[in-house]
Backbone:
């Protein structure tokens, strides 16, 4: 068994508690798929229940810390320097359709900087985590981004924006530009896992727009601690965690992908 730091241990405990609830609910969703009503309301309840479990566990361990959560929004803590950033179910649409690719994402922010992150995929039993300056891991395996330096040998992940005409048109232009230089594009539908896959060398790069802070906070740190790069798609002076327009990749392909996407 790997030896986790106290902070990572607290985060993993919260993620695994929520995971047990979500896995049970996921089994129900698969059954609900065949019903006419569909599983939408059920999944919304599962999402909120998981967030409550995470909030309860983290509050017990660190009662003074604040929160930023997908379902419940922002909650100030007595200690203004620390804040948990929680996505109880990243990949909701996959979950909704019974597709086994979704995760729980928890990050810890200190004075505006992400210092710890955990992304847990309970269906595949994969647990990604990182602490600032301590490296990134999947369980006890050290993560490293890929060493590929040729876009024509790369596999790149992306995410499609919600259906707004102007955003769809802009995305299709970016998609066409990347398709012209990369043979393999993937859209898995869970940004937190996409970032972890970059960290693990499964994807060589990833880009997506209009993400929320809780979608990318943990994954961003995991990529950086695995030797990768993360930045804003449009402006190097901006923080991608805040803008939600994210590009990630290894040291060779990150600048190449940036060049392609910024010329669209």
Residues:
């Amino acid at each position: 068994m790997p030896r986790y730091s106290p902070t990572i241990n607290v985060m993993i405990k919260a993620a695994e508690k929520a995971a047990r609830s979500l896995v049970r609910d996921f089994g129900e969703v698969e059954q609900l798929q065949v019903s006419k009503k569909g599983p939408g309301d059920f999944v919304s309840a599962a999402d909120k229940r998981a967030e409550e479990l995470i909030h309860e566990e983290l509050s017990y361990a660190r009662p003074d810390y604040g929160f930023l959560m997908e379902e419940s929004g922002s909650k100030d803590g007595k200690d203004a320097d620390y804040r948990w950033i929680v996505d109880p179910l990243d990949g909701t649409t996959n979950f909704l359709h019974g597709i086994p690719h979704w995760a729980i994402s928890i990050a810890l922010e200190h004075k505006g900087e992400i210092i710890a992150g955990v992304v847990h995929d309970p269906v595949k039993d994969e647990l990604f985590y990182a602490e600032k300056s301590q490296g990134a891991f999947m369980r006890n395996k050290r993560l490293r981004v890929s060493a590929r330096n040729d876009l024509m040998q790369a596999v790149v992940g992306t995410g499609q924006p919600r259906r707004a005409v102007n955003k769809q048109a802009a995305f299709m232009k970016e998609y066409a530009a990347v398709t012209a230089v990369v043979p393999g594009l993937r859209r898995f539908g869970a940004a937190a896992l996409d970032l972890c896959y970059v960290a693990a060398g499964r994807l060589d790069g990833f880009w997506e727009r209009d993400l929320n802070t809780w979608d990318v906070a943990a994954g961003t740190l995991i990529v950086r601690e695995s030797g990768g790069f993360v930045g804003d798609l449009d402006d190097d002076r901006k923080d991608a965690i805040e803008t939600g327009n994210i590009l990630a990749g290894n040291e060779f392909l990150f600048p190449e992908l940036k060049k392609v996407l910024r010329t669209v």
